[in-house]
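Worked example 3. Consider a protein that binds 7TS.
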Amino acid sequence: MDRTPASGLLPKPPAEVAFSAARVRADFPILGTTERGKPLVYLDNAATTQKPTAVLDAMRGYFEEYCANIHRGAYAMSAKATDAYEGVREKVRRLINARRTDEIVYVRGTTEAINLVSHSWGLKYLKPGDEILITEMEHHSNIVPWQIAAQRTGATLRWVGLRDDGTLELEAFDRLLTPRTKLVAVTQCSNVLGTINPIVEIVQRARRVGALVLVDAAQSVPNMPVDVQLLGCDFLAFSGHKMCGPTGVGILYARRELLDAMDPWLGGGDMIREVRMEGSTWNELPWKFEAGTPAIAEVIGLGAAIDYLAGIGIARIRNHEQGLAAYALERLRGLGPDVRIFGPRLACHRGGVVAFTVGDVHPHDLATIVDQDGVCVRAGHHCAQPIMRRFGVAATARASFYFYNTEEEVDVLIDSLRRAREFFQGGAR
Ligand code: 7TS
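Given these inputs, the predicted complex is written out as structure tokens:
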């Protein structure tokens, strides 16, 4: 039955406080500074993001007020540190909607999370003849650990290729997916092309052949709502420093049954139940995978970052970034036909990452020139050399946005790129 009111007007959605990048910028001390005498325009957020005062304060608070090791002292200050550290697990659980906190393992970052899986799961369960399916758009940290695991176990690595628009060849994915496939390891959002991959669909297809799925969420958890139960994935990895948190802390999410069945990767303090001269037994989850004194202040900082992002709203962050990506694509295209943009045409199919080249100006030269104007962009292969080969370039420049970036900053980048092109092409004449 049609429930549209007779007037034809749908009920009004609830009023929302509009998001303002200008307002949140005040939370980031560094964003008010200058670089080479120009206001800092930080557009390298895919590499790492800036930190708000709330995160700096949380870490400083730990160091100044309750700096103690965790899980050991009976004294109150150690208990306070333990509570703060352990309390962050629940924040992470809620952020990605995991079922339980013991499915959340603290690691150093995405790279370590994937290496943990490749060692603890890969080396134990992969056999000769098994296949690991990855894609041509992976970051090196979702390639090299699988190459090492394949080498050690006799398993084979298979690759899903890319279409010209930077999306996955999903037809090839279906062909490559066979009962030999034991794991599909795929990024949710490419750090070069910006492509957002259809993870739900990939998981559904992988399930049909009984393969597990690892999602590299380094570029998605910071920028868009991610729900591991909705995705249905088995493993998910991300880094704190790309979401306003500090470096040195990241998360491996894994389904409990898998963590149970996996062996520890690192041995040492905290990960044991009992140590005898003839052998040791392991601690409960997730501590079985957390050997040694962890990054306590960093975990606490990550907790503050999650609170901060939740205060803004991850859906709003996604919305703002998509708008900036659309604006940047339009302005870059407007620069002229010698601008080559990599990845999907439409901003709704991509994250806040735009990689490009300008004529035959070397991307490093572009980045160096725009740096004179206070603009930070990355140039190089972005730790994704197979993408560079696929598209026949050695390097690209890349602007990557976060919720505190503005259209005015995109304008500064574009003006600066125009000057860079004039400088180099003028010089060549
Ligand atoms: N996966 C993706 C998709 C990434 O973008 C990165 C880092 C990683 C994994 C590794 O994360 P880490 O925190 O363990 O280093 N990407 C980038 C980048 O694009 N520029 O610098 C680092």
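Take a moment to read the result before moving on. The domain at 15-52+313-425 is CATH 3.90.1150.10 (Aspartate Aminotransferase, domain 1). The radius of gyration is 23 Å.
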